[in-house]
Structure formats: structure tokens, C-alpha cells
Amino acid sequence: MHVLELLTTVPGIWVWVGALLTLAIFSFLFGDNPLYKVAEHLYVGVSVGYMITIYYWNFFKPDLIDPLFRGGQFIVIIPALLGLCYFAIFIQKLSWAVRIPMGFVLGWGAGVAVPAMLQSYIIRQIQGSLLAPEMLASWDTIVWGIVSFLGVITTVVYFFFSREQKGALKVVANIGIIYIMVGFGASFGYTVMARVSLLIGRLQFLLRDWLGVIS
Amino acid sequence: MNFAERLGRIDRRIVFAFIAVVVIVPFFLPLSILSRVSPEAQRLFDAVEDIRPNDKPLLISIDFDPQSMPEIYPMLEALLRHAFARDVPVVVMALWVTGVGLGELALNQVAPEYGKEYGRDYAFLGWKPGFAAVVLGMGRSIPETYPTDQYDTPLDELPVMQGVRNYDDIPLAISLSAGDPGVMTVWIPYVQARFGQDLGAGVTAVSAADAYPFLQSGQLTGLLAGMKGAAEYEFLIAEAGYTEAATPAIQAMDSQSMAHLAIILLIVLGNASFILTRKRK
Predict the structure, then answer these.
(1) Domain spans of chain A, in order of start
(2) A73 interfacial to chain B (CB closer than 8 Å)
(3) By the 8 A CB rule, do B136 and B142 touch?
(4) What angle do CA A162, A165, A167 make, to 5 degrees?
(5) How far is A167 from chain B, CA to nearest CA, in Å?
(6) DSSP H/E element including B45
(7) How far apart are CA B212 and CA B203, in angstroms?
(8) Is A145 or A174 the better-scoring residue by pLDDT?
(9) Which residue of A146, A190, A206, A208 to mutate against B (max B Cβ within 10 Å)?
(10) pLDDT per position as a tens digit, B193-203
(11) Where are the domains of chain B?
(12) Are the Cβ atoms of A54 and B127 closer than 8 angstroms?
């Protein structure tokens, strides 16, 4: 039996591996050290290896190899050649060929993305910011509708640079700054919550799955 | 060096140790702080509740990786438990390569709890590259975009996929998203805006502030924000009697709250030290 297969038969072996690697990463809190370096390099290597495997089984095999060699669909040679053109960048004389797939991807991407982004990020967001009749349903929707509407207007005014900000324009822009600061504060608060969540997740793993001291 | 200066120069390892203690203690002394469910979590719960049992499937997209597991994985488990408890078929896919293993892990864990069978009650489509092309293609034809599932089985051989042609046959899609590609960069612009698909989301806390505007504009049906959102969903399904399974996110909320209090205290102390030191100079 292969040594890796043998290892998988030992109960909890991968929990131990995960726990020791977690502690190795945490050791960075006391400064860079060889244990941390081992864990870091292992993470990069395993991630790349995992991705290559998934790329092969979920993409190359079903979308290129099988249709070409089993299904006789020679049309897939065209996108395959386009993909190969990316590697032309390593050959100086042929490096011009990389522009073909890049032009194709950029053209397709822009054509698909521009209307979609306009619709979802501009038009729908403007609609969502308007004081619509349904906002008059209750006092809290009215209040929050007005707060939101003022926030959009004053923040946009703050980013209006075609005229010097003084007088009434400055007052409105300053209100916009308050909205922006509240936005930054909310983002920072959520970021703290996210980072603490990651610590909690690791500690739950160490205390529950590894040491078994919590349920 | 006076007290104010010493306060501003606390060794960072002491701060790390303090935060670790504050996080660990509530595991042993639970405080049960979670008492309120946000309206956005309730709306997502209601949207899943509105799906007819044994009919069209709920689509869940795994757009996160193991780095975001503590925040989003409990959402995935809770959503699966909710759907399976109500006999709602589930189709799972991934826009992140590293989400494939997480999808399999969750399905293999939750499906047996409810006696659900692969192919009949749920399916796993796996991952394909070119996220925009994938979700746009699914709007035209899901079986053409995913001719086979993650295990190389043709979709037309899976009973759960019978009659599922495109988004018209998906009552609700939920993206569990940790960034790009995810709910805000792919599902909202390419699926919700273009096909009018009802869309829910579970996001990391880092991106929650960016996701809220889409909730107000009606582009998102409901939203779970970070570990707190996961805890709220765990609470909702437990209260409805759908599960008696462990609730890791609820358990984590006590630690989360205590860590927030500790960080607020450190911010106040840091600022006090700064102001007092500056006054002295």
C-alpha cells in the first residue's frame, strides 16, 4: 500500500495535519520562522496542484479532449488554438499572436459587461435611490428613504470637481463627507468582524476537532 | 515613561494574547447573546420557505474558498438543511475552483441527515471556467452549459434536473460569495439584471457594506452578512424545527461580541494614550 493511502487509514490524521499547520501559520505572530515558511509554501503548492487537477477534469477533458478525440468535434480545435496563442508570448518572433485571443476576450468581455454593469450598477441603483411612492408606506421607510436620498445627492456633490467648492456647494459637500465617513466606518467595522470570524473559525477547529474540549 | 506612554506602547503579542483569551472563554462560558434576526436574513429565509416542495430546484452557487469557511460554510450547511427539510430539490454549482471540495463536503454531510439521494433530490454541477460565459449560458440552457455533472453523469440522466432548462425553472438562486467572481460582479449584473432571476446572497462581512445597496434596490431578495448572518439563519431553521444539528455560527457569536468589546476598549485606550501624550508634549 502506498504511504499516503496508509496515512489516510489512520483516524484523525488529517485533523492533526490541519492543526499543526494552523499552529505553524499562527507562529508568524512571533515573527517569521521556518515553520511558517514550510506551511506557507505547502499551501501555495497544494492550492496550485488542486487547481490544475480540477482544471483538467472539469474543463480540458470534458470540453476539449473528449469532444475532439471521442466525439470527432473538430470545431473545438479553433478555441484550443486561440488558447495556445497565449503561450506565444514566450517566443519573441511569435509574440504578436498573443493579441488575437486577448482581442477576442477583451471585445467579448466589454460587449457583455458594459450593458450589464450599466443596468445593474447605474440604472437600478438610481431607481433604488429615488423617493418612490412605496416609501410612503410607514414612517420608518419615509425617514430612511430621505436619509438615503440625501446621502446619494450630497456624496455625488462632494465628487463634483468642475466648480470650486465654496458657499452652498461646500456645505452640501461637507454633509457628503459625513456620509462617506459613516460608510468607511461601517466597512471597517465589518472588516474587523470578518477577521475575528476567521480567528474564531480556527480556534473552533483547534478546540473542537483537534483537542475535543468543546462540543 | 509615564502611564499614558506605556499604554500606547503595549507589546502587540500581549494584544494578540488578550484577543485570544477573549475569544476562547465564551466557548466554555456561553452567554447566548444572539437575540435578534435581521430583516434581510428573515427575507432570505422566507424566500426559501416560499419554494414549493418536490418541484423546481433551489440553485446554490459556491463562490468562496476555504479561507472564508468560518463565515460562509455555516450558511451553506444551514441553507441545505432548510431546503432538504422542506423537500426542496437542490442544485449546487461553483464559480470558484476551490469551492468544489467545499460543495462536496457540505452535501455529503447534510444530505444523509435527511435521507436525500444524489441525482433524485440534489445534484452537483461542479465548476467551469469563464464565469460570465457560464452564468449567461445557463440563462439559455443549463444542460448545454453543463452537459455533465461533477461526476461525469449526463444531466438528462439525473431525475432532479428533469424539466430544468434555464433560469425560468429556478425559483431562487443564492450566491455564497467571498469576492470576485461572486454575487456583485457576476450574479447581479449577468443573471439578475439580464434574466430577472430572484437572487439571494450570503457574503463575507468585508463585502457586506457593498452588498446592502443591492438589497435596497430590490436586486437582492435577502442577504446574510458574515458570521452573524450565518448565525441568524441557523437560529431561524432551528426555531422552525428543521434541524437539531450543531450551530457553529451561533456558538461563535458570543466570542464575536466579546472580541468586538475588547477591540473597542483597545481603540479607546489607544486614542486616550495618544491624546494624553500629545497634550504633555
Answers:
(1) 130-214
(2) no
(3) no
(4) 135
(5) 30
(6) helix B39-49
(7) 10
(8) A174
(9) A190
(10) 999 999 999 99
(11) 3-29+257-280, 39-246
(12) yes
Q: What is the ipTM of this complex?
A: 0.89
Q: Which of B20, B126, B226 has the CB atom closest to A197's CB atom?
A: B226
Contacts of B166 (CB under 8 A, 6+ apart): B138, B139, B140, B141, B142, B195
Q: How far does the CA of residue A40 sit from the closest CA of chain B (Å)?
A: 14
Asked whether the beta carbons of residue B16 and residue A47 sit closer than 8 angstroms, the reply is: no
Look at the domain B39-246 and name its fold. Rossmann fold (3.40.50)
Q: How many CB atoms lie within 10 A of CB B9?
A: 10
Query: Which residues on chain A are in Cβ contact (under 8 Å) with B71?
Result: 194, 197-198, 201
For B257, residues 6+ apart whose C-beta sits below 8 A from its C-beta are: B26, B31, B33
Confidence of residue A7 (pLDDT cuts 50, 70, 90): low
* Count, residues in chain A: 215
Answer whether B20 sits within 8 Å of A203, measured CB to CB.
Answer: yes
Cβ count within 10 A of residue B279: 8
CA distance A85 to chain B (A): 17
Q: Which of B23, B129, B209 sits opposite A200 (nearest CB)?
A: B23
Residue A38 — very low, low, confident or very high, per pLDDT cuts 50/70/90? Answer: very high
- Of the candidates A14, A39, A11, the residue with the CA atom closest to the CA atom of residue A25: A39
Query: What would you report as the CA-atom Rg of chain B, rounded to the nearest whole angstrom?
Result: 22
Give the residue carrying C-alpha cell 448565525: B231
By C-alpha distance, the chain A residue nearest B28 is: A214
CA distances from A60 to A67, A68, B233 (A): 10, 11, 38
- Establish if A59 touches chain B: CB-CB under 8 angstroms: yes
A210: Cβ–Cβ under 8 A, 6 or more apart, which residues?
A15, A16, A18, A19
